[in-house]
Specification:
Blueprint lengths: L4 E3 L12 H4 L10 E3 L5 H5 L4 H12 L1
Parallel strand pairs: 1-2
Length: 63
Amino acid sequence: VRTIGVITKLDLMDEGTDARDILENKLLPLRRGYIGVVNRSQKDIEGRKDIKNALAAERKFFL
């Protein structure tokens, strides 16, 4: 099985919630694990936030 889990919109989670156990493959294990993603919002797109800056913001979010 070549399935990975993709968790999106991590930046929109309610304060106090934590996806760490999922991302560390502890809660519902998948053979290939999970990846977290922070996409550009509609506001970012309308504000013409480019992909390079969006990727930098995503990296910063996960550090």
